[in-house]
Amino acid sequence: MKRRNTPTKEAVLSVITKAGQAMSQDAIEGEISIDINRATIYRVLNRFCEDGVLHKVIAEDGKQYFALCDGCDETHQKHQHFHFKCTVCETLECLPNEVKFSIPNGYHVEDVNCVLTGVCKKCS
Amino acid sequence: MKRRNTPTKEAVLSVITKAGQAMSQDAIEGEISIDINRATIYRVLNRFCEDGVLHKVIAEDGKQYFALCDGCDETHQKHQHFHFKCTVCETLECLPNEVKFSIPNGYHVEDVNCVLTGVCKKCS
DNA sequence: TTTTAAAAGCGACTATGTCGCATTACTGGG
DNA sequence: CCCAGTAATGCGACATAGTCGCTTTTAAAA
After folding, report:
1. Most buried of A23, A78, B11, B74, CB within 10 angstroms?
2. Closest CB from A107, A108, A116 relative to B112
3. CA B122 to chain CA centroid, nearest Å
4. A25-48 per-position pLDDT tens digit
């Protein structure tokens, strides 16, 4: 299962990188120049997640948003930061704030999904 | 727009109360004795949310879960606690831990959605 | 009992996301 | 440089979640 380089992968990653924020599948499809199948975009995104290139956030709208991992691997404290979803411009961005929590004994946390919703700096 | 008491409302609230944890629409429909339309269940749940009886959580699966508000109103620090979704038993419960965060100036937070995913005490 | 408006039922509709299968096209080996 | 193996893509179908408009029912006040 070695990964191959394809125009699709490059296009998707390029769009997300340029945007500088988390994007949903439909936003990506809208921004991309070439025509890529919806299922393919999801597969590309999920592969990037497996490879630690992107991470996935579930927002209040129940949709999946994908954001670049900026040094997520290094600390092995993966993706444990807050996200902010603006209800006006609809963008979802990663906040630098680390999510801190303590849980009762016996619980084993595998994933963290923290999204703050409101109005961002630009829109207020 | 005064609210009325209906068997549907009572049945939904009773199921959630007995469960003692957050529930999705389909889980509620499965537990309820009488036959209630899907759209109606959603409307009932959303009305309860408006009235501050329930609060809504979006989990990793993108689905809406509804949980009893346990003194959520009193502090006016509404629903700012963590939630835990178990990948084994699929239940979603409210944790007592308060969510603490600080955001950059100019941002206005209206809602908080924090879900930890993993394996709960019972299932590990 | 009558009235009226909230609530429920029903059907249709819109995503979002996934899956199976046939086809295409990277990439490494010769 | 070409060929074979297999990852990746396209396409269609499908499942599910959630919403909406409209009609009918019904709780509760007059």
Report:
1. A23
2. A116
3. 20
4. 999 999 999 999 999 999 999 999
